[in-house]
Amino acid sequence: MGEQVHGGGLLFGDPRFHDLNGVPEERRWRHEHRVDGRLVGVLPGVVTEGVLLSGHSAPFGGPDLARPDPTVGDVVGFVDGVLARARAEGLEAVRIRCRPPEYSPAEPLLEYALLQAGFAVEHCDLNQVVDLAPLGPDGDPLTLLGKKRARDVRADLALPYELLDVTDDEGIALCHGILAANRAAHGRPAGLPAEYLARARATFPDRVRLHLLRHAERPVAAAVVYRVLDDVDLLVAWGDDSRHGLQRSPMNLLAHLLVERSLRTGARLLDLGPSSEKDGSPNVGLAHFKRSVGARPGTRKVLVAGLR
User: Fold this and answer.
1) SS3 at position 27
2) 112-137 residue pLDDT tens
3) Is the C or the N end of the chain the one with fewer CB within 10 Å?
4) How would residue 186 be classed by pLDDT, with cut points 50, 70 and 90?
């Protein structure tokens, strides 16, 4: 990405991610803002029918900033520069799928600058993240749980469970099968295809991880996790096999093991993703479960500005 940006740059802004999603070069858009030669930030995106979208084929996008704590002047100037260039190129609108505010101290300032420049909230999701920073590298994730949840997880840790990192086609197919069946059982549309997950894993072997939870060597749950920044993990998908026949749902243990793995591999946040429906209304049951495994509530917004 050239000059270093905070967090190493968002996975979804990487040109290889656009390659993965078959975005033609002529539709790709990238704006760099500089002050006296100093890089302030970069906004990658994709233009479709006159609309610039940052976060194309992704949960979110938004600017990669050079500093985690930029000045107000730098951020306001960055936003003004994006809009000026978009207008000069005749674009009709700019839409930004913003990353959650917990990702950096700059996110609330960036949202302020966007709103002041004329952006409006088009959509808002309830989002939940597990803050790992207070635990420290040697912390115990069980301290994030309530007494009953911690007791159940301790009991499950004594059972013949194992969490595998999946890398081969057979393992990916097993993960995908569990996730697809789980989504269907909850009346949700199909998720990412197995073939796409395999290509994503091959493209980003250090940043795309598939996990298979087994009990007595039988697959009972699965998860897909992306390292979206150097120190932030995003849970892309998870679910259990409804036929597991276990005394307790394996999801409690899966959540704990994912938190443990993120902590062990240097993440400061594990983003468990939205707990709301397509229209933004809350999924109360999902929100309660994520809270019970240590996540705190926040938001994930889509901001849009018309340019004509």
Assistant:
1) helix
2) 999 999 999 999 999 999 999 999 88
3) C
4) confident
